[in-house]
Design brief:
Layout (H helix, E strand, L loop, with lengths): L2 H27 L3 H18 L13 H35 L4 H4 L2 H25 L2 E3 L4 E3 L13 H22 L1 H19 L12 H52 L9 H7 L1 H9 L3 H5 L3
Helix pairs in contact: 1-2, 1-9, 1-10, 2-3, 3-5, 3-6, 3-8, 6-8, 7-8, 8-9, 8-10
Organism: Rhizophagus irregularis (strain DAOM 197198w) (Glomus intraradices)
Protein name: G-protein coupled receptors family 2 profile 2 domain-containing protein
Keywords: Membrane, Transmembrane, Transmembrane helix
């Protein structure tokens, strides 16, 4: 086992710990199930890659069935993580754009359905192509889809890279909407204070317009709900934007080598490459984005 393989295995182990911490925290809080699914899927990816340690990462001596399973599951799990991230981006985008979800997506059935169907739709053709072309071969870190190189475009190097583009759009639009309506945060707070002042001082100028108790209660409830909605989503949108940007950046970095290899008809290097390093830090990035949020910090108190 070379030094680079040893280091990247340690990075994957750290990413696994970070991801399982976020997943368990969200499970305890019963919040953000889409990010929970994302973290759980990434934990499976880490376990799959670290399973090569059983053979001291000398995967040429591993059984062919093990090598095929490991290489295929890397691609399949990446389908799940990508769709989970896209669904989370769309969830925040829908909340800010429409102030509510459709009934189908509000129950998250639509998101769960996409997370199930997308890996199956993409995974079945990939399995057939890999089986017929014998595209999965041992590499230094793990068994991977590598020969012929164009098969990788059916996996995370191609399909997931394209899928991350809508996520970036949702992130950018959500960030723009948040920035555009920052003044509404102040307005809600001001309206609430004004309403409270009117109740305390009924003869003040702010209370010249008489409201019935029902009307006043409805107005206060609406303002409080709106204020709660924006205060809850402000931090989430920022974290979601950073997450989506990180995912598309990682996919871009991970796809560069594959695209160049396909264009130049070169074989994928068996050494640890940029794609491997990019995948190893996803769990750490997720922890840095979500692990320091107030909700996660208070989950175990």
């Amino acid at each position: 086992m070379g030094l680079s393989v040893m280091i990247i295995n340690i990075v994957y182990l750290i990413s696994f710990i970070c991801s399982i911490y976020i997943a368990l925290s969200l499970l305890k809080l019963r919040k953000n199930p889409l990010i929970g699914i994302y973290c759980c899927a990434y934990c499976l990816l880490c376990c799959n890659i670290l399973s090569g340690v059983i053979f001291k990462n000398d995967l040429s001596s591993a059984p062919k069935a093990f090598c095929f399973f490991q290489g295929y599951m890397v691609q399949f799990i990446c389908y799940i993580t990508s769709m989970s991230a896209i669904c989370f981006s769309h969830e925040i985008y829908s909340l800010l754009m429409n102030h509510k979800h459709s009934t189908f997506f509000e129950s998250k059935k639509g998101y769960y359905l996409l997370i199930i169907l997308y890996p199956l739709i993409m995974g079945i053709p990939l399995f057939i192509v890999c089986f017929k072309t014998d595209a999965i071969i041992p590499r230094e870190l793990k068994c991977d889809v590598a020969n012929p190189i164009w098969v990788r475009l059916l996996g995370y190097s191609g399909a997931n890279f394209i899928l991350s583009i809508p996520g970036m759009y949702f992130s950018a639009r959500s960030a723009y909407i948040l920035y555009k309506h920052l003044d509404r945060f102040k307005d809600f707070s001001l309206n609430e204070d004004t309403s409270q002042s009117s109740q305390t001082f009924p003869n003040s100028p702010n209370s010249q317009i008489t409201q019935s108790p029902i009307s006043r209660q409805f107005s206060q409830t609406k303002n409080n709900l709106d204020q709660k909605r924006y205060s809850l989503t402000k931090e989430a949108v920022i974290r979601m934007s950073i997450l989506s940007s990180s995912i598309i950046l990682i996919h871009c970095l991970g796809s560069i080598g594959t695209i160049i290899s396909v264009l130049t008809h070169e074989s994928l290097s068996k050494k640890v490459n940029l794609n491997d390093w990019a995948g190893s830090v996803i769990g750490i990035c997720t922890f840095l984005i979500f692990g320091f949020s107030k909700e996660i910090r208070n989950a175990w108190h």
